[in-house]
Design brief:
alpha+beta, two-stranded antiparallel sheet
Length: 276
């Protein structure tokens, strides 16, 4: 629980910038959601940019982090609300009206009336600005080596064949899944806005989410071996208000680190004092 209260005053102090390599330990599939299939293409293509290169949408990373942090904090049915109630496509997320709710502080909170999973509807009294911004992660094309390309089905991706087997008739239903291969790297960038002293505590929460992600999965088919990732080459810099108003230099806090070094940084007792 954060030390934020209803009396906390927001005043911009700076931005904590985190950049890292998002490294695929197994094939990664984030679907493009195409309504039609290309001749000779996979049933489930990955999302690509205008140049045909796979990328990881910031919304996918942000949504996965939120989901992992919500589960780590405990899913209280009284604080689960519906974003969508369409039958078969229900979307439920955590949202509360507690001032110190770290999930709502990191990812934002709308003042709209929302329907809870259980109990009466929630009438949000105030809006909470999202502190965390996560950007689309482009592919580092150099991470797809010449040796890897020799074994790929496409220039930058592979196709994984799977089958669902009927338990009664043993009839197989094959499907194909396009994936970015293991070893590929994406350039990750996220920014944590610090709008008050209490916001500095959120860096540890974010770090916890990133470490959870390394032992979970990203994208589709995680329970079938897809989407195992880890962070490398982590760089964290602090850009105080003077960086934007006076041209002051940024302060580099860590470089070429892994998630363990990042955790040590944000758990250090002097961390908050360095963000000045």
């Amino acid at each position: 629980m954060s030390s934020h209260t209803s009396q906390t005053t927001l005043k911009f102090q700076g931005k904590l910038v985190l950049e890292a390599s998002l490294i695929c330990e197994s094939g990664l599939h984030i679907g493009a959601g195409k309504g039609s299939l290309e001749i000779g293409g996979a049933d489930n293509p990955v999302v690509k940019d205008a140049f045909g290169r796979p990328y990881v949408p910031g919304s996918s990373i942000r949504g996965r982090l939120r989901s992992l942090l919500e589960h780590a904090a405990g899913l209280d049915p009284a604080e689960m609300v519906y974003l969508s109630r369409r039958k078969g496509q229900e979307v439920r997320i955590h949202q509360s009206d507690r001032a110190g709710d770290e999930i709502c502080l990191l990812f934002g909170r709308n003042p709209n009336r929302v329907e809870r999973m259980s109990g009466e509807s929630l009438d949000g009294a105030t809006a909470t600005p999202a502190r965390l911004a996560v950007y689309d992660a482009p592919l580092d094309a150099d991470s797809i080596t010449a040796q890897m390309r020799e074994n790929l089905d496409d220039e930058l991706t592979e196709v994984k064949s799977e089958s669902a087997v009927d338990r009664v008739t043993s009839q197989a239903s094959p499907r194909t899944l396009e994936r970015v291969p293991a070893g590929a790297k994406f350039r990750l960038r996220m920014i944590l806005d610090v709008l008050c002293d209490e916001d500095k505590e959120l860096a540890a929460t974010l770090c916890g989410g990133l470490r959870l992600l390394e032992d979970d999965s990203l994208g589709g088919g995680g329970s079938r071996g897809n989407g195992r990732v880890r962070l490398g080459d982590i760089r964290v810099a602090w850009r105080g208000k003077g960086f934007y108003t006076e041209g002051s230099a940024e302060q580099e806090l860590v470089k070429d680190a892994d998630s363990s070094a990042l955790l040590a940084l944000v758990r250090d007792g002097e961390f908050a004092g360095r963000l000045a």
